Structure formats: C-alpha cells, structure tokens
Automatic annotation (TrEMBL):
The keyword Hydrolase applies. Transmembrane segments: none annotated. Residues 11-182 form the Exonuclease domain. Pfam families: RNase_T. PANTHER family: DNA POLYMERASE III SUBUNIT EPSILON (PTHR30231), PROTEIN NEN2 (PTHR30231:SF4). GO terms for molecular function: 3'-5' exonuclease activity; DNA-directed DNA polymerase activity; nucleic acid binding. Keywords: Exonuclease, Hydrolase, Nuclease, Nucleotidyltransferase, Transferase. This is DNA polymerase-3 subunit epsilon. Its EC number is 2.7.7.7. InterPro entries: Ribonucl_H (IPR013520), RNaseH-like_sf (IPR012337), RNaseH_sf (IPR036397).
C-alpha cells in the first residue's frame, strides 16, 4: 500500500487479543480475539469476536483482568482454525492496535502473513498528548470523553474484552484524525509518530 495514500480513503481494521497469562516455563497463549473495522467513508462496521481454544489454563491474574474462564473456551476454535477469518479481515487493511506488540506476537503463528502496515494508537496518543499521566486505552478514553461512544458500539461488553478494546482503538483513532484534521494527510504520518515531546515529559 502506498504511504502517500490519503487517510480519508483508507480502511482500518483493529485487532485485540486477550491472553491466558504468563506461567513459569510456558509461553503465553491467546484466549479471545476481537476485530472491528472503520473508515472515514463507511464508519464503524463488521465487529467480530471469538474465544480461542488453548491447552493452557488461564492464570488467576489474567482471569482477574479480563474475566474469561477456562469453561468459556469449551468448543471454541483454535487460533489456527480462525486463519480464514483473520486473513479476510486483515488482508489489505491498515491494522490498528493499542500497544501492538502482543497482537504482532500472537499473529506470528501464521508465518509470512504480510499483514500491515500497522498503526499503534499507543504511540500516536503519546505523540499527541504527551502531558497525560496515563496512555492506557481505558484511561485515554475516559480522559478524552470517548468511553460512552465505545459503549454505544459495544453495549454488552467492557474493558479487557477483546472486541470492546478493538473498537476503542478505532474510536480513539477517529478522534485523533478528526481533532488534528488529518483526513487529507498521507498514511505515512501515522506510521512513525514523533515522540520527542513525550520523551521530554518522561525525563522531566
């Protein structure tokens, strides 16, 4: 995708994973995935979520965060079984995540998938609002008055639900693009945000 593409014409797909939690001697595993789509031309659409089967028990600390239980995963597909769904949703889209490290790590289960380019709303908000004490997704949405909007799109869900968080990433992105009048700027401006002011705030 050309980096000179205008933002107003692009399709964005957010992805979020919730995990089983880290346990000694074992790698982490995803237990829920959420996907949501948005563009300036079509608005918010095509929400999707699924629990994910894993051979890892969910740790107490992870369950305390997202509330997902081992019994919720009974009959759920594995991440590999959802490959056609993920490919259809992410192929050709600008992929959005808040703190994209976890999402990129779990998608390594599909070598050579070539999803992207990626936009990290955590980095964007650090660049746009360096003075804020927290850039956690829920804190940002509360501070910027966006939580109600997210709840309107996902009324039966809450923070640390994969679909709720994926939707929140897009609501946050929409807010940033509108507030800073970026619709007619090139995609490239979102890929490498300038974090100089945020770094200066941290040092001070």
């Amino acid at each position: 995708m050309p980096l000179s593409s205008k933002i107003r014409h692009l399709d964005f797909t957010a992805i979020d994973f919730e995990s089983a939690g880290s346990a000694r001697g074992k790698t982490d595993a995803p237990v829920q995935v959420g996907l949501a789509c948005w563009s300036m031309e079509t608005g918010h659409h095509s929400p999707y979520h699924s629990y994910l089967r894993t051979d890892r028990p969910i740790t107490w600390s992870a369950r305390k965060v997202h509330g997902i239980r081992d019994e919720d995963l009974l009959g759920a597909p594995s991440l590999q079984e959802l490959w056609p769904t993920l490919r259809a949703a992410l192929h050709g889209a600008i992929v959005v995540a808040h703190g994209m490290g976890t999402e990129k790590r779990f998608l390594r289960a599909f070598p050579g998938h070539s999803f992207g380019p990626w936009i990290d709303t955590l980095l964007l908000t650090r660049a746009a609002f360096p003075e804020l004490p927290s850039h956690a997704l829920s804190d940002l949405c509360e501070t910027l008055g966006l939580s109600e909007t997210v709840s309107r799109f996902q009324p039966d869900r809450q923070w640390h639900d994969a679909l709720f968080d994926a939707t929140a990433s897009l609501v946050l992105l929409e807010h940033l693009l509108t507030r800073h009048e970026l619709a007619d700027r090139d995609l490239e401006i979102l890929l490498h945000p300038n974090l100089t002011r945020w770094s200066a705030h941290r040092r001070s």
